[in-house]
Specification:
The protein has 114 residues and is mainly beta. It is 5% helix and 44% strand. It contains 1 helix and 6 strands; from the N terminus they run E-E-H-E-E-E-E.
Length: 114
């Protein structure tokens, strides 16, 4: 996905600013679904490195960003381990870099999934 007009080149998650338009990539580490009675919302937390859990030393150095789709209960194809490129406005929410309703492209899936 080429960056939209005004967006910067692909940034590492660790280099994301606290506010502003970003274009980055990472691996889905976890997803959170909203309860049935709550307003629709789908969250994915992206890690900078694939499989950081296999190296305990990398655990402390891990950088993350939260992607939130308001109005969506699920995003087909977005599961743990999937590589995603995204673009949107980043802001800090509760001390965590967060992008609401980002543009995204699924770059790869976990091995063995169709």
């Amino acid at each position: 996905m080429p960056p939209a007009a005004g967006a910067s080149a692909l940034l590492r998650i660790a280099d994301l600013p606290s506010r502003g338009r970003v274009h980055s990539s990472g691996y889905v580490g976890s997803v959170t679904l909203a309860p049935a009675g709550a307003p629709p919302r789908f969250c994915a937390v992206l890690d900078e490195l694939q499989g950081v859990y296999s190296d305990p030393g990398a655990e402390q150095a891990r950088r993350r960003v939260r992607l939130v789709w308001i109005g969506q209960r699920r995003i087909p194809g977005l599961v743990a381990g999937t590589q995603v490129t995204f673009e949107g406005m980043v802001s800090t929410v509760q001390g965590f870099p967060t992008v609401f309703n980002p543009r995204y492209e699924i770059m790869g899936r976990p091995e063995g999934e169709q």
